[in-house]
Amino acid sequence: MLLHCSLVVLAFTAQDDASLRKSRDSQDRPALEQQIAKLKAAAKPTDAESQYKVALAQSYLAEVAQEQRDKNAARAAAEAGMDPAKKAIGLKGDNAEYHRVLGTLCGQVIPANVLAGLKYGKCAQGEVETALKLDPKLVNGYIAQGVGNYYLPSSFGGGVELAIKSFEKAIALNAKSADAYVWLGIAQRKANRNVEARKAFQKALELNPARRWAKEQLDKTPAQ
User: Fold this and answer.
1) Are 74 and 112 spatial neighbours (Cβ–Cβ below 8 Å)?
2) Annotated domain spans of the chain
3) What own/partner pairs with CB < 8 Å and gap ≥ 24 does 183-189 have?
């Protein structure tokens, strides 16, 4: 069953997700919004994959809004993706990627409002943990885990060192994950490891030259 679920997700990633990632990489919010409208129109209540597509696209839109420091837009986009993510899980609860997306969406709400952490923090952590239990080799699951630890203070069980370990785990599973390298660099910079951070950003851009956010992070990271 897990193999079947993984193949469903991979099929989507290889086809439809390419255009979504292109819009995300260029931080083209209008394009993402248009794509989301089409996905919503095509989504079927009883089709888990079509619900997942909407949720994933909303997560990308929230990600871009965060990168552009538009916290309110990020929160709105993330919240809009939660219902389709929950529907996908309700239809296929053993799909690790569906849980990962819901956990990511819950986490994307929090930066806009610290108080939202009380409501969405458990969702973010719990759904990512469920995803990794279902699929211990889910690369994006470890990235999501790392992002959660990056924002969660060490006094609450998170911290930058735990985040770095999660990103390194993701890279160990997939050395071509540009997203993992971007987040590794961000965490290393927070840990005052700027030289290593720049190398991580450079690797991310080598793997995905179109990712504007990676270029921005490299430009703002001191050489020493």
Assistant:
1) yes
2) 2-136
3) 183/143, 183/146, 183/147, 183/150, 184/146, 185/214, 185/217, 185/218, 185/221, 186/150, 186/217, 187/146, 187/150, 187/160, 187/163, 188/164, 189/217, 189/221
Segment 88-114, tens digit of pLDDT: 999 999 999 999 999 999 999 887 776
Tell the residue number behind the tokens 């919004």, with chain if given.
33
Distance of CA 61 to CAs 1, 147, 175, 198, Å? Answer: 30, 17, 25, 26
Residue 161 φ then ψ, to 5°: -70, -40
Cα-trace Rg, the chain: 16
What are the phi and psi torsion angles at 165 (to 5°)?
A: -60, -40
Q: How many CB atoms lie within 10 A of CB 157?
A: 11
pLDDT for 171-205, tens place per residue?
999 999 999 999 999 999 999 999 999 999 999 99
Question: 2-136 — its CATH code?
Answer: 1.25.40
